[in-house]
Design goal:
326 residues; alpha/beta; Quinone Oxidoreductase, Chain A, domain 1; Rossmann fold; 2 domains; globular; NADP; quinone reductase (NADPH) activity
Length: 326
């Protein structure tokens, strides 16, 4: 009997329950996967709270890595014994489990040198970082970016990747401990938003012009300061809403603040094409395997402690990547 974290109603972390589940044999196009590690992502809290509505009861989690134990008819992209990882959205929901059936389509065979723990910590964050660095903006050496949550899982990958591209990275954090982590991963400058004016400091650091791009995963509480940090015709990339959704606003605001651009991308739209997904995955896994980008797993939890893991995540106690070890 496998174990899985499920929720029967939306709400706070306490709605998460560990339950016994029957897994069974894979059907056509499916595999049975035994998890070795499961990723913990802020997006998980959106499913639990109801921001991302799903039929209930529901499983939890969209990212994990493990060993293929059985394959169904028509599966030709992976084989029994392969180490794989996956991430997605509704098509991969249910990752908080010891074993599961899953379509073979989202599975990524792990290259040599990438463990299941590292894969669970980086597949979603790595693919997110890959499209942010390679698809959102035509970066040139010398461009500057403002990176919110610079000590978070995506932030630490983006900052390292940005340095490979020759960018100037200005990160924002909430504590001096996180500032040290951000600097160690490539941030040229760090702004502690607990006591510094982010927009004012970002402009000071760029000679008054502002940054080329802002990556904002915080949302409501940082939206206006992010816009005010941009140079004329700069790009605002809304990649998350950790502090709440961004209130409606008049698009004229973008013109007033310098003919700014704004986008709200979603990972699903950058990995929907299998060829593009494979290209992005190869690039980010290649950087990690070669040591050009390192993945820090700073929190490890047992699956039974999912509620506490969510509390830690939402209270911003975590840094780097967090995983469940099976």
């Amino acid at each position: 009997m496998a174990k899985a974290i499920r929720f029967h109603e939306t709400g706070g972390p306490d709605v998460l329950r560990m339950e016994d589940v029957e897994v069974g044999d894979p059907g056509p196009g499916q595999v049975r996967l035994r998890h070795l590690a499961v990723g913990l992502n802020f997006a998980d809290t959106y499913f639990r709270s109801g921001i991302y509505p799903v039929p209930l009861p529901s499983g939890m989690g969209v990212e994990a890595a493990g060993i293929v134990e059985a394959v169904g008819a028509g599966v030709d992209n992976v084989a029994i014994g392969d180490h794989v990882s996956y991430t997605g959205f509704l098509n991969t929901l249910g990752a908080y489990s010891t074993s599961r059936l899953i379509s073979s389509a989202p599975l990524i065979k792990l290259p040599a040198g990438i463990s299941c723990e590292v894969a669970a910590a980086m597949t979603m964050r790595g693919l997110t970082s890959a499209y942010l660095m390679r698809r959102i903006y035509d970066f040139k050496a010398g461009d500057s970016i403002l990176l919110h949550a610079a000590a978070g899982g995506v932030g630490l990958i983006v900052s390292q990747w940005a340095k490979l591209l020759g960018l100037t990275v200005i990160g924002t954090v909430s504590t001096e401990e996180k500032a040290e982590i951000a600097r160690a991963h490539g941030c040229d400058h760090v702004i502690n938003y607990s006591h510094e004016d982010v927009a004012k400091r970002a402009r000071e650091l760029t000679g008054g012009t502002g940054v080329s791009v802002v990556f904002d995963s915080v949302g409501k509480s940082t939206f206006m300061s992010s816009l005010d940090s941009l140079r004329r015709r700069g790009l605002m990339v809304c990649v998350g809403t950790a502090s709440g959704g961004i209130p409606p606003f008049d698009p004229q605001l973008l013109a007033i603040k310098g003919s700014l651009y704004l986008t709200r991308p979603a990972l699903a739209d950058y990995i929907a094409d299998p060829a593009e997904k494979a290209e992005l995955a190869a690039e980010v896994f290649g950087h990690v395997a070669a040591g050009r980008i390192r993945i820090d797993i700073n929190q490890r939890y047992k699956l039974k402690d999912a509620a506490q893991a969510h509390r830690d995540l939402e209270s911003r106690k975590t840094t780097g990547s967090s995983i469940f070890v099976i």
